[in-house]
Amino acid sequence: MLCDEQFDGCNQLLQEELRYYQPQKILFLTGFNWFEGFLTQNIKWLTKIDSESFVDAYGKLEIEGNIIDFVIAKHPQGKNESIFNDSVLASFNQLESPNTPLKIYQ
Fold first, then answer.
1. What single DSSP character describes residue 38?
2. Does the pLDDT at position 97 exceed 70?
3. Which superkingdom is the protein from (predicted)?
4. What's the whole-model pTM score?
5. Domain assignment of residue 105, yes or no
6. Between β-strands 25-28 and 66-73, what pairing exists: parallel, antiparallel or unpaired?
């Protein structure tokens, strides 16, 4: 299958982009089923959420010593924007120190 043939190259490209850009946070809008398998060697820890939340998982990646907070959320299309945003922010806040919560700016 084409997806299987392209997977390793896509995973390597994603790793290279993370090395180059060195982000502090990443939001994957894929759901866990599409994320699964990517960056497995870079995951420091991962918490899966087994509920009807818009967020499937969150954790930390390590790419060449750079620690990256990440959240895996379901695709936002057709979702209540306010509830979706609150869910994603709550997950990122789980990864932050207790004194520095993230906020939405509108």
1. T
2. no
3. Bacteria
4. 0.87
5. no
6. parallel
